[in-house]
Write a structure and sequence with these properties.
Blueprint lengths: L1 H13 L3 H23 L3 H5 L6 E2 L2 E4 L2 E4 L5 E4 L7 E4 L2 H14 L23 H15 L9 H14 L3 H8 L4 H6 L1
Antiparallel strand pairs: 1-2, 2-5, 3-4
């Protein structure tokens, strides 16, 4: 079981403290979330909807999102734009993703799991609000003297601005999975 293996690893590295290995797990998740947001411009619900088998080579399949349900709770469904797309990621991000899975989800070779969970020994996905709060938490711990807004949607706007600067609005529209070019140009 994953929890047993992690307990042994934590004991070797930090004297067996569950809190220590949980902080390590969450720190790695935060880094992976920031890398994915910065490279892809994913929405927070799309990020929360990622599963361990959504990466194929350097291609990331975006086909589901986690979002608030009508009667409360969170549901898993289609993305906001109802587009199922494949995005290219850098080799470094793809390698980080795979290493994270090998370290924390060794059983994911047999079955797909949610990529972002509260603990590595559960398969309950995080809600989009928690996913959105993690990059903010990371930025606040990097340097508390600097006020940075690193909410996922703000990062999405930054991705759009950088890509638009390269001169191909159509490519930006495809990357952000917008239906209309006008929506992309607002970013």
């Amino acid at each position: 079981m994953v929890g047993h293996w992690l307990a042994e690893q934590a004991e070797r590295d930090w004297g067996g403290s569950r809190g220590s290995w949980l902080r390590w797990f969450r720190a790695e998740q935060r880094c992976l979330q920031v890398l994915l947001l910065a490279e892809s411009g994913l929405r927070r619900g799309e990020l929360a909807g990622l599963r361990t088998d959504d990466l194929c080579g350097q291609g990331l399949w975006v086909e589901r999102a986690r979002k608030p349900g009508r009667c409360g709770g969170v549901i898993t469904g289609a993305t906001k734009s109802y587009r199922h797309d494949r995005l290219s990621l850098s080799r470094a991000t793809a390698l980080y993703w795979r290493q994270h899975i090998r370290t924390w989800y060794p059983d994911s070779l047999d079955r797909a799991r949610w990529l972002f969970c509260a603990t590595p020994d559960t398969d309950v996905p995080l809600v989009p609000g928690t996913v959105a709060a993690r990059p903010v938490f990371l930025a606040n711990h990097v340097d508390r003297r600097i006020a940075i807004d690193v909410a996922p949607h703000r990062i999405r706007h930054t991705v759009a601005c950088v890509l638009t600067g390269w001169g191909d609005p159509g490519a930006v529209q495809r990357r952000l999975r917008h239906r209309r070019l006008g929506t992309t140009m607002v970013h």
